[in-house]
Amino acid sequence: MLHDHERFEDPDIFKPARYTPDEEGAELTRFVYAAAFGFGRRTCPGRNFATASMWIIIATVLAAFDILPDGDKIDSGEGVDVPSLQYETGALPRLSSFKCRVQPRDTMSNDLLKKMVPRSSPNLRCNSHDM
Asked: Is the separation of the CB atoms in 64 and 105 below 8 Å?
């Protein structure tokens, strides 16, 4: 599916830069998004479930946690450094460096998270001083 000679020049050669935005950036972004779930008759049957689940997870994290810059910059009134948008590639692409503090917004969120973590994965540890 991603080796279309009509869409890409040299589709068999590894060129990740072909997915960076250009004059056709919006159309290409939609194409790459759709490529993750397949096309036509081969479309992933769990596509809607996966996107809805990710939306719920992200909304829950943003509702339950304060995500703050690492260190005491907010407390001291200093400006916050905006990290570069350099990514590491792989199965799950991520920012190369993004230091931050993630803390529960209130005691109710904290108590709920302490109850949820051991049930969701017995391998995760929940230290009371961390939460």
From this structure: yes
Q: What is the 8-class DSSP label of residue 86?
A: -
The first and second tokens of residue 108, run together, are 């109710």
**Is residue 25's pLDDT more than 60?**
no
Distance, in Å, from the CA atom of 116 to the CA atom of 128, rounded to the nearest integer, reads 13
Strand partners for 33: none
Contact by Cβ (8 Å): 115, 78: no
> What pTM, to 2 d.p., does this model score?
0.53
Which amino acid is located at 87 in the chain?
Y
What is the H or E stretch that residue 66 is in? strand 65-69
What per-residue confidence (pLDDT) applies to 128?
A: 46
Among 127, 84, 80, smallest CA distance to 103 is for 127
